């Protein structure tokens, strides 16, 4: 066992302190730096190094950490000595001073020759002292007063500070004895408190009362003993300080010791507050017992009186007998219920004791692991010792091990309420479903990664195979990135990052939502893939029947052609939202639900953005760059009627009563009107495109909420209603369109009938 390192105290170096070659008078610099004085001492150079180091170390340990951190001021008085003494003092201080230095003042020799030698010597040997602080040479104490106030200097240095060295040593010894007494007392209090805390509490009232009485008696005796001994010691110390200044300079260690004692006392008082609560608990049990026992005894006595009346053939025997039977039934029910509750409480207490023991064992294990010193494990012997300690501790786990899980559950089944049983059953079912969803997600993710790898290795990499290059269609040779898009980027992300993070969710399913949110930015790669998908499909339609792709498919033993596998990323991002929805159904009001909801919203937003981008790139005829229009807010096909007004004459389109089919693309600053065209491509599915027809800047248009009360239609008008577009939408999407348009500060108006109705009901309209 490693010995405790005890700090130096005055009694350890009492002889060295009495030599008075260094003193701590209590004076301070202007910034609060402690002053250590080296007074004139003829035999300074003959002091052993160990004695010098012990005294200086002790003196630097007395000020507070805050004061010591400022740095010490050293005053070396060598007025009656020689330059050699000055040099020896500076050399010794530079090499052995343990504290942080701030300044060094030297009162140089007063004799003329020695002063001249000192002036020359300090210039020649200054670098040899290796001090990183200024060394200030002074001619007299009056020069010293220019740096340090007289009130902080002793009489020997022309100051007014009262200081007696023998008295200082006496009081330091007394204070350190007091501090040791306080420390011993605190340890005694802590040991007493620990013994009390570790005492197992009895289950019955008499034993509890006996334990309370014993602990209270011990507490009172200890408290009186501590208070008497400490107060007498402290009184002796205070009476011994005949100088107020000296008393003040020694208050810091006294206060520190008293604070330590106060903490232990507070701990003990807190514990005895719990003891008082236990006493109150005993009183409560006795009170409840009397409260319940008295009515029961009265009822039983009343039933006996009824039996006597029945035996004496009382005239009301027919009325008395049922009452007695009912009274006994109530008493029996009460007794049975009381016993049942008593048994339940007993089982609950037993269960909590077992849980508490297991918890204490776990805490002990944590402490054991945390207390293993790293240095100890650097050697084989130390590592083996640490391992032996851990294995020995693990061997004690058998004491807390359940021999039979089913038997344990049956043992405590009686304390489970029907609500708890239902809730536990639901949690088990939900947990099974959650684990099933997690397993499905991970298994399908592994298959997905394998399929991506097979596409890249079996098709993309084979385009560099010299044996097959003659089979590659010319249209594909320099357009590999069009056919595969950013598939390699998707593969790298899932193989290196996402799959591993999903696998970590097996043990912690509640982290699944966090996993998706963490990779929110990375999942945007699917939007890029979907943007390229129409171009990829168009290229595949040109050369999908080539021998190269057939040969690659044969080697991979794929039942489906490449275009089916190129659809996998689109299917995968859609699969995520389905699995997240299923997870939400099984994880309501549980940990991680909020993150799951946010993750689902994120995936749905990615799907929407990917879908929108596929439609957006199919716009033709628009003179600008659609990618510079910003984020696409909404898009869809609608019925559109137009109404133009030229001059004072209102001219309706020829097709006024027949709606036009238009596909609208809504951006933050502009609304595009396009005509959807579907073209047949050699028997393949139709590939839609959108011919640009018109556009409206959102900053110059207004909106009428509905047309003649039809909530499926609204108007977008332009240039003072010279151009009016009536748009018919489904009822469900109308609100979303309006909210987004209003967010862009589009002026909102209403139809005349609506305006009258809103005015009558106090509604407001926007111009």
UniProtKB/TrEMBL annotation:
Keywords: Guanine-nucleotide releasing factor, Phosphoprotein
Superkingdom assignment: Eukaryota
SMART domains named in the record: PH, RhoGEF, SEC14
Taxonomic path: Eukaryota, Metazoa, Chordata, Craniata, Vertebrata
CDD domains: RhoGEF, SEC14
Domain (CRAL-TRIO): residue spans on this chain: 1-165
Name of the protein: MCF.2 cell line derived transforming sequence-like 2
GO biological process, alphabetically ordered: intracellular signal transduction
InterPro entries: CRAL-TRIO_dom (IPR001251), CRAL-TRIO_dom_sf (IPR036865), DBL_dom_sf (IPR035899), DH_dom (IPR000219), GDS_CDC24_CS (IPR001331), PH-like_dom_sf (IPR011993), PH_domain (IPR001849), RhoGEF_Guanine_NuclExch_SF (IPR051336)
GO molecular function terms noted in the UniProt entry: guanyl-nucleotide exchange factor activity
Protein family according to the UniProt entry: Belongs to the MCF2 family.
Domain annotation DH: ranges: 433-613
Coiled-coil positions: none
């Amino acid at each position: 066992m490693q010995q405790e390192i005890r700090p130096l105290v005055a009694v350890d170096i009492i002889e060295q302190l009495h030599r008075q070659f260094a003193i701590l008078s209590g004076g301070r610099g202007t910034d609060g730096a402690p002053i250590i004085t080296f007074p004139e001492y003829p035999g300074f150079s003959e002091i052993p190094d160990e004695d010098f180091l012990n005294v200086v170390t002790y003196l630097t340990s007395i000020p507070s950490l805050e004061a010591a951190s400022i740095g010490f001021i050293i005053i070396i008085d060598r007025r009656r000595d020689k330059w050699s003494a000055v040099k020896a003092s500076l050399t010794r201080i530079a090499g052995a001073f343990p504290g942080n230095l701030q300044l060094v003042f030297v009162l140089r020799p007063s004799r003329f020759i020695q002063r001249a030698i000192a002036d020359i010597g300090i210039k020649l040997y200054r670098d040899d002292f290796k001090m990183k602080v200024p060394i200030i040479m002074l001619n007299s104490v009056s020069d010293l007063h220019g740096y340090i106030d007289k009130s902080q200097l002793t009489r020997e240095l022309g100051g007014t500070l009262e200081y007696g060295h023998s008295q200082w040593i006496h009081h330091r010894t007394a204070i350190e004895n007091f501090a040791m007494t306080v420390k011993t007392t605190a340890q005694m209090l802590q040991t007493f408190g620990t013994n009390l805390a570790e005492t197992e509490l009895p289950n019955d009232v008499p034993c509890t009362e006996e334990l309370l009485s014993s602990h209270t008696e011990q507490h009172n005796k200890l408290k009186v003993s501590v208070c008497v001994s400490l107060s007498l010691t402290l009184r002796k110390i205070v009476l011994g300080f005949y100088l107020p200044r000296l008393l003040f300079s020694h208050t810091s260690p006294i206060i520190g010791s008293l604070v330590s004692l106060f903490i232990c006392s507070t701990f003990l008082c807190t514990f005895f507050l719990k003891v008082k609560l236990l006493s109150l608990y005993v009183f409560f049990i006795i009170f409840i017992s009397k409260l319940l026992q008295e009515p029961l005894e009265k009822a039983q006595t009343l039933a006996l009186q009824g039996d006597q009346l029945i035996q004496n053939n009382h005239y009301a025997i027919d009325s008395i007998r049922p009452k007695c039977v009912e009274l006994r039934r109530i008493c029996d029910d009460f007794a049975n219920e009381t016993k049942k509750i008593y048994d339940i409480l007993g089982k609950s207490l037993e269960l909590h004791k077992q849980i508490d023991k297991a918890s204490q064992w776990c805490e002990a294990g944590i402490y054991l692991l945390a207390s293993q010193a790293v240095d100890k494990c650097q050697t084989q012997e130390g590592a083996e010792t640490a391992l032996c300690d851990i294995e020995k501790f693990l061997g004690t786990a058998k004491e807390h091990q359940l021999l039979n899980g089913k038997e344990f559950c049956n043992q405590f089944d009686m304390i489970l309420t029907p609500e708890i049983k239902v809730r536990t059953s639901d949690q088990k079912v939900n947990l099974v479903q959650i684990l099933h969803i997690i397993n499905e997600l991970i298994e399908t993710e592994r298959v997905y990664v394998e399929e991506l790898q097979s596409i890249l290795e079996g098709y993309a990499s084979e385009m560099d195979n010299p044996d097959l290059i003659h089979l590659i269609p010319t249209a594909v040779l320099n357009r590999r990135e069009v056919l595969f898009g950013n598939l390699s980027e998707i593969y790298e992300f899932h193989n290196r990052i996402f799959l591993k993070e999903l696998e970590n969710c097996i043990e912690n399913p509640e982290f699944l939502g966090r996993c998706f949110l963490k990779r929110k930015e990375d999942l945007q790669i699917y939007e890029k893939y979907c943007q390229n998908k129409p171009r990829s499909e168009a290229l595949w339609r040109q050369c999908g029947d080539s021998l190269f792709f057939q040969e690659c498919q044969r080697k991979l033993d794929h039942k489906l052609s490449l275009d089916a596998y190129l659809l996998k990323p689109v299917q995968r991002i859609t699969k995520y939202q389905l699995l997240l929805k299923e997870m939400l159904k099984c994880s309501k009001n549980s940990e991680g639900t909020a993150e799951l909801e946010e993750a689902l919203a994120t995936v749905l937003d990615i799907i929407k953005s990917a879908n929108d981008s596929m439609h957006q790139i199919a716009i033709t005829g628009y003179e600008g760059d659609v990618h510079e229009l910003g984020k696409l807010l909404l898009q869809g096909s609608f019925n559109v009627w137009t109404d133009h007004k030229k001059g004072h004459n209102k001219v309706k389109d020829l097709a006024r009563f027949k709606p036009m089919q238009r596909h609208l693309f809504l951006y933050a600053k502009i609304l595009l009107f396009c005509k959807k065209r579907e073209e047949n491509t050699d028997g393949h599915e139709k590939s839609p495109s959108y011919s640009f027809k018109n556009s409206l800047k959102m900053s110059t248009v207004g909106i009428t909420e509905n047309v003649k009360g039809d909530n499926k239609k609204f108007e977008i008008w332009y240039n003072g209603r010279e151009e009016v577009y009536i748009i018919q939408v489904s009822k469900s999407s109308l609100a979303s369109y309006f909210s987004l348009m209003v967010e862009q500060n589009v002026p909102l108006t209403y139809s005349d009938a609506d305006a009258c109705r809103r005015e009558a009901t106090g509604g407001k309209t926007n111009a």
